Amino acid sequence: EEGGVGRRGERERSEEASAERGPGAAFHMFVLMEDLLDKLKLLSYEEEALRRHNMRPLSRHYFALPTNPGEQFFMFCTLAAWLITKAGRPFEQPQEYDDPNAVISNVLSELRSF
């Protein structure tokens, strides 16, 4: 019962925060994902990143909705590694079962060095 009350309170605060930002705030993440996808397409991510790893193209809302966190995390790491390499830095492609904390630490470390 206590957990239910806490979650309800968090949900109400989240809804209040969305209302304060305006009615379109709830859809902002979808707009950001569509912009991201457009930019990835301009960089030919489908040919260069996805085909190399035998992955499917992203949907318009792939990262906007939490559907399969493990798969989404691996896709994020794959794209991050590809983008870092595309920017001219050698970066080892993470494997699906690598420690997530180590992978993120490596990505952040590389981005800080830019």
Automatic annotation (TrEMBL):
**Superkingdom to which the source organism belongs:** Eukaryota
Q: What is its main location?
A: other
Q: Where is the composition biased (Basic and acidic residues)?
A: 1-19
User: Region (Disordered): which ranges?
Assistant: 1-21
- Has keyword rRNA-binding? no
Q: Which residues form a coiled coil?
A: none
The yes or no answer to whether the keyword ATP-binding is present is: no
Q: Which GO terms describe its biological process?
A: intraciliary transport; non-motile cilium assembly
Cite the PANTHER family for this sequence. Answer: IFT57/HIPPI (PTHR16011), INTRAFLAGELLAR TRANSPORT PROTEIN 57 HOMOLOG (PTHR16011:SF0)
- Where found? Cell projection, Cilium
Which family is it part of? Belongs to the IFT57 family.
Q: What is the protein's name according to its record?
A: Intraflagellar transport protein 57 homolog
Q: Which Pfam families match?
A: IFT57
Q: Which UniProt keywords apply?
A: Cell projection, Cilium
Extract the InterPro entries matched here.
Answer: Intra-flagellar_transport_57
A Gene Ontology term for the protein's cellular component: intraciliary transport particle B
